[in-house]
Design goal:
Length: about 270
C-alpha cells in the first residue's frame, strides 16, 4: 500500500512539475493555434473575394482560397508544436511514410484529385458551360477536386469522376446545345420552298439562339423522300422542350403548304 502511495505521489509531483514548467508554453501554443485558425480562414476568404471581384473563374478562386487556408494552417500547427518543444521532423517523416502507403491504396482517388487540379488550372470548361463527355451531357454546376457535377434538363445531378474527363474527347458548347432534326419530303416538292418553310417555322419557336443562325438544307436522298437536315442552337436547360416544339412547328408548316411527307411503301405483284 505504501509503495502504491509513493508511486502516485511521484506521478503527482511529475505532473505538477510539468504543469509549472510548460504551462505557459501550452497556453501559448493553444493561443497561437486558435489565432492562426482564425487568420487562415480570414485570409482564405480574402483571397477568394479578391479573385472573384477581378472576374476570375469562381472554381479557381475557391480552390486558391482553400489552398491558402490550408497552407497557413499548416504553418501555424508547426509553430504551435515548436512552442511546446515538440519537434515536427519525426512527424513529417511519419506522414511521408504513411502517405506512400496510402497513395498505393487509393490510386483511383488520387487520380481524381490530380485530374481535378488539372481541370481547375487549365479550365477546359467553367461553371455554366454545357459539356458532353463519355455520352453524358449537362450544364456544369460545380467543379470539385475529386469530381464534377452536371445538371441536365430534368434537374438531375450527374456526378462524374474527374479522371474520366481529363484525356477524353470533350464537347463544350458554352450555354447552348445543338439540336439536329431530319425532315423527309416527297421528291415532287420544291426544295427552295421547303427550305423557306422550315426556316419560317423555326423562327416561331421561342428559345432558339439568335447568335447562331439555323442551318437548313438537303442532307440526303432516301428511297422515297428528300431528307432535309436541320441544325439549331438552343438553351441547354430547354433542349427537349425546344426540340419537340420545332418538330411540331415544322410539321404544321409543311401540312399547311400541302407538302407531302412520304412514308415507306412496298408494291407487291402476284404472279
Amino acid at each position: 500500500m505504501e509503495e502504491e502511495f509513493q508511486q502516485a505521489q511521484a506521478l503527482y509531483d511529475t505532473l505538477v512539475e510539468f504543469a509549472v514548467t510548460y504551462s505557459f508554453q501550452i497556453v501559448g501554443a493553444f493561443f497561437i493555434f486558435f489565432v492562426g485558425w482564425w487568420l487562415a480562414a480570414k485570409m482564405g476568404d480574402v483571397v477568394e473575394n479578391v479573385m472573384v471581384k477581378r472576374n476570375i473563374d469562381i472554381t479557381l478562386s475557391r480552390f486558391t482560397g482553400g489552398a491558402c487556408k490550408i497552407l497557413i494552417l499548416g504553418l501555424v500547427i508547426i509553430i504551435a508544436l515548436g512552442n511546446i518543444g515538440i519537434s515536427v521532423t519525426p512527424f513529417i517523416a511519419a506522414i511521408g511514410a504513411v502517405g506512400i502507403g496510402a497513395g498505393l491504396a487509393i490510386q483511383g482517388m488520387l487520380a481524381n484529385y490530380a485530374a481535378g487540379f488539372t481541370i481547375i488550372i487549365t479550365r477546359p470548361f467553367v461553371v455554366g458551360d454545357t459539356i458532353r463527355v463519355r455520352g453524358v451531357a449537362g450544364v456544369v454546376d460545380k467543379v470539385m477536386l475529386p469530381y464534377t457535377i452536371l445538371i441536365d434538363e430534368d434537374n438531375v445531378h450527374i456526378q462524374i469522376p474527374n479522371k474520366l474527363i481529363v484525356g477524353e474527347i470533350l464537347h463544350n458548347s458554352a450555354e447552348r446545345m445543338l439540336i439536329e432534326l431530319d425532315v423527309g419530303v416527297a421528291y415532287s416538292s420544291d426544295v427552295d420552298e421547303v427550305t423557306a418553310l422550315i426556316r419560317s417555322a423555326i423562327e416561331t419557336v421561342d428559345g432558339v439562339s439568335d447568335e447562331k443562325a439555323p442551318a437548313v438544307g438537303v442532307d440526303s436522298f432516301g428511297d422515297s423522300s428528300i431528307n432535309f437536315g436541320v441544325r439549331v442552337w438552343a438553351q441547354t436547360t430547354r433542349h427537349f422542350e425546344i426540340r419537340y416544339a420545332l418538330n411540331k412547328a415544322i410539321f404544321e408548316a409543311l401540312k399547311q403548304a400541302d407538302i407531302e411527307i412520304p412514308f415507306p411503301q412496298r408494291e407487291v405483284k402476284m404472279l
